[in-house]
């Protein structure tokens, strides 16, 4: 029987693996004195790309969720009950009514056709500003 350790193919494969293991598990003694895997040592460029990607995603998502801004003094606003009654006369079914972060009236519900709506209104005039 032939000994598998004398097989040239196995020997070549061992050398190949030994070189790659050495490259992957190279020693980084500058910090801890312990061997650190190469894949745990990201380069400066990769870190900067990750930070930039995170920043772009964070800014993009905040802009996507922002609604309109209403700069009307609160004493000029329509009463909420009057506004809701006006919307119901127009055929809207209001499930949720609130004042948005931009100080606009915001409703969630259904229009006269039964379609789901999210609409922002000017609190003074009741004019529609944005529909999502």
User: Low-confidence parts lasting 5 or more residues at pLDDT below 50?
Assistant: 1-5, 21-30
Beta-strand segment tally? 4
How far apart the termini lie comes to 77 Å
Largest sheet: 4 strands, antiparallel
- Report mean pLDDT, rounded to a whole number: 75
Shape: elongated
**Helicity range:** 25-40%
Number of helices: 3
Order of helices and strands: HHHEEEE
| Structural class by secondary-structure content | alpha+beta
Q: What portion of residues belong to β-strands?
A: 15-25%
Strand order of the largest sheet: 1-2-3-4
Tell me what you see in this structure:
With 132 residues, the chain is an alpha+beta fold. The chain is built from three helices and four strands, in the order αααββββ. Strand 3 (116-121) and strand 4 (128-131) form a beta hairpin. It is elongated, with a radius of gyration of 32 Å. It starts with 7 loop residues before the first helix and ends with a strand. Residues 1-5 and 21-30 have low confidence and may be disordered.
């Amino acid at each position: 029987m032939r000994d598998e350790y004398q097989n040239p193919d196995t020997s070549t494969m061992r050398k190949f693996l030994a070189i790659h293991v050495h490259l992957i598990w190279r020693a980084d003694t500058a910090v801890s004195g312990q061997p650190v895997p190469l894949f745990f040592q990201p380069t400066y460029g990769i870190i900067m790309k990750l930070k930039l990607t995170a920043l772009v995603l964070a800014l993009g998502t905040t802009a996507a969720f922002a609604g309109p801004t209403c700069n009307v003094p609160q004493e000029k606003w329509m009463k909420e009950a009057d506004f809701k009654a006006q919307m119901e006369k127009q055929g809207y079914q209001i499930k949720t009514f609130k004042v948005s972060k931009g100080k606009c009236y915001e409703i969630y519900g259904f229009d006269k056709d039964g379609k789901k709506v999210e609409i922002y209104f000017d609190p003074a005039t009741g004019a529609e500003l944005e529909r999502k």
